[in-house]
Write a structure and sequence with these properties.
Elements lengths: L3 H5 L3 E5 L3 H13 L4 E5 L2 H10 L4 E5 L8 H10 L8 E6 L4 H8 L5 E4 L4 H17 L1 H8 L3 H14 L4 H14 L3 H12 L5 H13 L3 H14 L4 H13 L3 H14 L4 H13 L3 H15 L7 H12 L8 H20 L4 H17 L3 H16 L6 H13 L3 H12 L5 H35 L3 H12 L6 H17 L4 H14 L9 H19 L1
Parallel strand pairs: 1-2, 1-3, 3-4, 4-5
């Protein structure tokens, strides 16, 4: 065992806690135990600033740090940005009992954890144990810090040969190093040898990864599922199950695996992002929307904050706006708008991001049947697009769609014509053809509306023959809606009631009724439909007599 006072002397230590009493108490205890150079951070954001400015030998971070970054996010970001040396210690201090918080902290491999409440002696014993193991593996970690991974592997093997007491931590490091170097056969041997002696969760995961990398995904899946029987809370197994299922072209099953992982550890931002991505591609917006929503929330104070999370959250929420008059729909739309506003503020210098935000904003307003705001956002997107030095073809395709949504058909056609003469990928060409088709469909829809209005005008003036001609022209298009077809039936029935039942006109009415199909009783057009149907049946009987 080490001498703790000597081990702490000369080491730079960072204490992170949002509670002043807890900070003071831990600093006092660390000083008594021999620590000298101690910095203090009152929240996760301040902690990351200090970690980026200085190299710390030991970080003692409380898990729960209030509303900003928590201890898990500090550890995640410190590892991701490589601001935490392999020779450094990160120790999580937690009083949390909630399983999602405990699992979330542990899956990022802190060097140790301390549970509140603790005494001076408890802290001393825990630090001695953690630092002792770290010191015994110092030569390995020094090689890792120098990115001399082959040397680190060699030193790991030496530790295993000389010190059986370090079998578990040294084997774990060795396996990770071999995986990093893509020496899967050697890593598999290390994991398998250990598993022949004892059941270790991380070794089972490592074994499965090696088998997958060596070309046997089905056996890897079987191993991971067996590992979860013994260790049901080992979330990394679910992550790898999802990766393997995606490689086997089973995205729905991959999504299911990630949903199980999220249920155990919801605070891992990268996992939430991956779930959102897969669910979005699967067309499951009900799963994508909360995943991206959580990604935005978790990423707000994280190195993983990205424009894409905000846009994908708004897009997935947009797809769920089915009834603009419902309070729930309005709340969801407002959440999407707030996310887009935050994007615009935080990424104000990124013109590409502002353009995409305006496009999504316009579509969301369109879904909420707010034409004025949809047009305003579309105009904003058009202005931003015009000022981009080299706009992507995908942006122009998005702009053409937005022009159609906001009934700017002339601009939409101009953009489509421009794109037809551009170099596009096969995927972009297919999308352009669909947009062109949609534009033609919108034009026909407006044409039928115009003919319907003309028919209504003739009908109101008692010009039944002229009304029927206009309605017949409108209903010959597939784009004709139920109301247009009901207008046509009414004009024909009114003509027959004025004159006499006509089998040819009755047949035309029957064709329209078949096209309409059944109308739900809750539909506001049902009463009119039922009345016309009853009159039609009466005229049919009269014609048969």
């Amino acid at each position: 065992m080490i001498n703790l006072e000597k081990a702490l002397a000369g080491r730079r230590i960072l204490i992170v806690d949002d509670l002043v009493e807890a900070r003071s108490s831990l600093k006092k205890m660390a000083t008594i135990l021999g620590a000298g150079e101690i910095d203090i951070a009152t929240d996760g954001i301040e902690a990351m600033h200090l970690i980026h400015e200085h190299e710390y030998d030991i970080v003692l971070s409380d898990y729960n740090l209030g509303r900003t970054k928590d201890g898990q996010q500090i550890l995640e970001e410190a590892r991701f940005t490589e601001r935490l040396r392999a020779t450094s210690l990160f120790i999580v201090i937690t009083g949390e009992n909630a399983i999602d918080m405990v699992m979330g902290a542990l899956e990022y491999d802190p060097d140790g954890y301390i549970t509140k409440p603790y005494t001076l002696n408890m802290l001393k014993e825990r630090l001695i144990r953690i630092i002792t193991v770290k010191e015994e593996l110092r030569l390995v970690n020094e090689a890792i810090d120098l990115q001399k991974y082959d040397l680190a592997i060699k030193r790991c093997l030496e530790v295993l040969e000389k010190n059986t007491r370090l079998r578990l931590p040294a084997s774990r490091m060795l396996g990770q190093l071999l995986l990093r170097q893509k020496k899967f056969q050697q890593a598999l041997k290390i994991y398998s040898q250990l598993l022949n002696e004892r059941s270790v969760s991380w070794a089972k995961l490592g074994q499965a990864i090696c088998i997958y990398k060596l070309g046997d995904p089905h056996s890897a899946l079987a191993l991971l599922n067996r590992a979860l029987v013994d260790h049901p809370l080992y979330v990394q197994c679910y992550d790898w199950i999802a990766k393997i299922l995606l490689s086997l072209d089973k995205p729905l099953e991959a999504q299911e695996a990630l949903e199980k992982a999220i249920a155990i550890s919801p605070k891992a931002v990268l996992r939430q992002m991956e779930l959102g991505r897969i669910a979005f591609e699967n067309g499951d917006m009900a799963a994508a929307e909360p995943a991206f929503k959580y990604s935005v929330r978790l990423g707000r104070y994280s190195c993983h904050k990205s424009v894409k999370n905000y846009l994908q959250f708004a897009r997935s929420a947009q797809s769920l706006l089915n009834n603009p008059k419902e309070r729930q729909t309005q709340n969801k739309a407002n959440e999407a708008f707030r996310a887009l506003d935050e994007l615009k503020q935080d990424f104000a210098e990124d013109q590409d991001s502002l353009f995409e935000a305006s496009i999504v904003e316009s579509k969301t307003h369109s879904n909420m049947e707010n034409k004025t705001e949809a047009k305003r956002s579309a105009d904003e997107a058009e202005h931003l697009l015009a000022n981009l030095e080299c706009p992507k073809m995908d942006y122009k395709l998005q702009m053409a769609e937005t022009f159609i949504d906001t009934e700017q058909t002339v601009k939409a056609q101009q953009m489509i014509d421009e794109l037809k003469d551009s170099e596009l990928s096969d995927k972009q060409r297919i999308k352009l053809n669909r947009i062109d088709h949609d534009l033609n469909g919108e034009a026909l829809k407006r044409h039928t509306t115009s003919l319907n209005d003309e028919g209504v005008g003739h009908y109101e003036r008692g010009e039944l023959e002229e009304a029927i001609i206009a309605f017949d022209q409108a209903t010959k298009y597939e784009q004709a809606g139920i109301s247009v077809m009901l207008n046509s039936i009414q004009a024909k029935i009114s003509l027959m009631e004025r004159d006499s039942p006509d089998k040819k006109i009755l047949k035309e009415c029957r064709t329209l009724l078949i096209r309409i199909g059944e109308i739900a009783k809750t539909d506001e057009r049902f009463t009119r439909y039922a009345r016309l149907r009853k009159t039609y049946d009466r005229l049919c009987r009269a014609a048969a007599e």
